[in-house]
Amino acid sequence: MPTNARLGVTVDRMDENTTDLALARSVLVQELREHALVIGQVTLTSGATAEYYVDAKRAILMPAGFSALAALVAGKVEEWGGTAVGGMTMGADPVACAALAGGAPVKAFFVRKDAKAHGLQRRIEGPPLTPQTGASSWRTS
What we know:
By secondary structure, the chain is α+β, with helices and mostly antiparallel strands. The protein has helices at 20-36, 57-60, 63-80, 93-101, and strands at 3-4, 9-10, 37-43, 49-54, 84-88, 107-111, 124-125.
């Protein structure tokens, strides 16, 4: 069977109606189902409890999930004409890195809750972002 090197998955057959992005979405959904769904009582940030929880990082920080995310984010960046990808640290970190890994010609950045008390004491980490960058926002959570 042929392998899609970009996604790191084996492909039975790709016809003219199947795009790499459709395959990436399918792979990501499968990875989320297999690795991210936690069944059982979980305490949420609010203190409320839930009977299940989706921890996407369990799937997107594995090779197949990360590759699929990279293809999808890079595709959206191209579609939207984005120039930067990022957001609050921990939530946005894998998404911003996946955009770069997927070949998106963007700057990646992370926003800290509080500025560091040492070094450059920055709240926004990454290359300088300027108004000319034309950064678009995309919420990851």
